[in-house]
Amino acid sequence: MSHHEVDAEKEMNRLLAAGGTPPVETDPFTIGDVRLSPGRIVGLLRPHMRERRLERIRDVVENRTRAVVPVVEGLVNTGNVSAVMRSAEALGHQDMHVVRGEHEQYKHSQRTAQGAQHWLDVWHWDAPQACAAHLQKAGYRVVALHLHADTVPIRALDFTEPTALVFGNEEAGVTDAMLEASDAACEVPLPGFTESFNVSVAAGVALYHAQQDRLDRQGHHADLSDQAQARLEARFCLRSVNNAERILRRKIEEG
Amino acid sequence: MSHHEVDAEKEMNRLLAAGGTPPVETDPFTIGDVRLSPGRIVGLLRPHMRERRLERIRDVVENRTRAVVPVVEGLVNTGNVSAVMRSAEALGHQDMHVVRGEHEQYKHSQRTAQGAQHWLDVWHWDAPQACAAHLQKAGYRVVALHLHADTVPIRALDFTEPTALVFGNEEAGVTDAMLEASDAACEVPLPGFTESFNVSVAAGVALYHAQQDRLDRQGHHADLSDQAQARLEARFCLRSVNNAERILRRKIEEG
Both B47 and B70 in a single domain? Predict the structure, then answer.
């Protein structure tokens, strides 16, 4: 078991202890009793995929980042959560965190997300503190998109530093609990009478800004290690092939 | 009558001849039979406004631009049109064009626009060709946000040139008629599986990009002349004071 996988397991235990719900339902690399390497999975599934599909997967994986993580907190309009997922996936983010509002249970809007949820690792949280603490332990600074006395313009931030960007409720914004747990607050300065964007627009603009900032500063947005890319490629192949697990079982039994 | 006002009249006649609906219902500078200068209007209304309100109006007017013009074509979700209006107003645009879809009549979503429509000049068109021709005659290049063979990345465009940015229908994108009438097509490159943003997110991101591009290239986004600013300040004061027209009538009668 590689160092990376040990870390992932520790991470999962920490997450479960903190009351979070992990994004990955099962370990995708264990089929029955057999543990398969990511490369082996891709090799076995390759005959069942169009070459163009695999190329597309590799292209997406090469452009993936975990350095900037969108977090939505307490959104009540499911279309907005789905629109943020769509923007996040489109811009190359791999992780997204959803913190449930006090009285609301998020339900998914399939149409608005355009399938983006299938390609993201979506983490669910009951409370903002646990989410923020988890991200901070993992090395992220937590930045709320929220206007208050200490808010800085988003241009003042360096997005080559690992950053979780929190987008709050449609009416009330980010909760006090999340603001207290956050390391900073930023805003997109708006010169008009209208003092805020729609939340899905705000998230799209802020994530686009982060991407452009990273491109300007370091020439690239993507940053997964070769090993992380191989794992993600295998997971995306498992998602792309119909009955992938059954195919793998059969091939393993056949030797 | 100033040169600017003559041009505005010509513009209006051209617009009406082309089948468009102008954004401004009446000439705000004629009260009864008396023509008032913008400065006179502001002077007469000033006692009826809080000082902070007038400061806010001046601040918004100083940050206004007509150099980049958002155009939405054939949107069926009224929430999306309203969200684009909100983003456009928030980012300092003064004009917005709405081209009706073939079978749909746009209706306004008051909640989503957050009042932005009160501060924008919204132009309505029945057909894309008339809208594009109007903008091109007024000196804008018309750029569709649409993916086809000749599409360029949005980063390749110089937004210090007067540009109308066209955002198309939620499903079908920009119509063939609008694409034929356009000078270019651009896209926000997306590295994920999801091939597009939600249209209101796309508009927000593209307009934000244009603003940042203008700031990077020339140090400012706003560009109204002193005269245009004075006119807009008077119009915003008329909008801000309850019963402004009645107040002005009474003051003129009183001498």
Answer: no
- Together in a domain, B51 and B176: no
- Same domain for B75 and B190? yes
Query: Is any Cβ of chain B less than 8 angstroms from the Cβ of A117?
Result: no
Same domain, A55 and A70: no
Chain B residues closer than 8 Å to A115 by CB = 193-194
**Domain match, B15 and B70 both:** no
A68 and A93 Cβ atoms separated by less than 8 Å? yes
**Torsion sign over Cα A235, A241, A244, A247:** negative
Shortest CA distance from A240: residue in chain B: B193
Residue with structure tokens 């008629």? B177
The number of helices, as runs of H, and strands, as runs of E, in chain B is 10, 9
**Is B5 in contact with B225 (CB distance < 8 Å)?**
no
Nearest to B204 among A63, A91, A197 (CB): A197
Nearest CB to B198; choose among A56, A188, A200: A200
Task: Give the domain CATH number at B184.
Answer: 3.40.1280.10
Report the domain count for chain B. Answer: 2
Indicate whether B193 and B240 sit together in one domain. no
Top residue of A193, A199, A215, A236 to mutate, by most chain B CBs within 10 Å, is: A193
Which amino acid type is present at position B232?
L
pLDDT band, residue A148 (cuts 50/70/90): confident
SS3 B221: coil
The answer for residues whose C-beta is within 8 angstroms of residue A96's C-beta and 6 or more apart is A69, A70, A71, A72, A84, A85, A88, A120, A121, A122, A123
Q: Is B185 helix (H, G, I), strand (E, B) or coil?
A: strand
Q: With beta carbons less than 8 A apart as the criterion, state whether B38 and B231 touch.
A: yes
The label of the residue with tokens 């209706």 reads B107
Same domain, A153 and A235: no
Q: Residues with Cβ < 8 Å from B243, sequence gap 6 or more?
A: none
pLDDT digits (tens, 9 = 90+) for A198-218: 999 999 999 999 999 999 999
CB-closest option in B112, B197, B221 to A198: B112
Q: What's the pLDDT tens digit per position in A33-86?
A: 888 999 999 999 999 999 999 999 999 999 999 999 999 999 998 889 999 999
pLDDT of A112 reads 60
Kindly determine whether residue A114 and residue B196, on different chains, have CB atoms separated by under 8 Å: yes
Domain range enclosing B193:
66-218
Same domain, B27 and B126: no
B186 burial level (CB within 10 Å; 0-12, 13-18, 19+): buried
ipTM: 0.87
pLDDT tops 60 at residue A174: yes
Task: Look at A221 and B23; give whichever has higher pLDDT.
Answer: A221
Q: How far is CA B142 from CA A197, A215, B182, B221, in A?
A: 25, 27, 5, 19
**In this prediction, what percent of chain B has a pLDDT beyond 70?**
84
